[in-house]
Amino acid sequence: MKNRIKTKMIKILSGTRETRLTVQVADTQRKREKGLMFVGKLPENEGMLFVFSEKIYGGFWMKNTLIPLSIAFLDSDGEILKILDMEPCKEDKCPTYDPELSYHYAIEVNLGWFEKNQIKEGDYVKFD
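^ that's the sequence the OP posted. Answer follows.
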């Protein structure tokens, strides 16, 4: 089934604490563009991992996204460089949430999930 998006379990390391998150992997242009558009509810410990083939610069927007999200931008080592909160947008012109740095991965979760799990910039994500 070609529309089936694959999921994987990732671990976020904050000092000695380890938090698990199940993510849908958006690793193609089409999957990245669709992202979590039109998703009405995201289970508590689930999110979406955006994988870019090279470092990119630029932001995300929330067009047609129905739920507020938090996003973490990561470098190629999995270090969380920046966390931003994003609001749903039903307009034609939506704000861009730009970390103002280059990144290799991004993870979207429910708004406040990182904070609730005491995950912060400088923590590391393990993908295997």
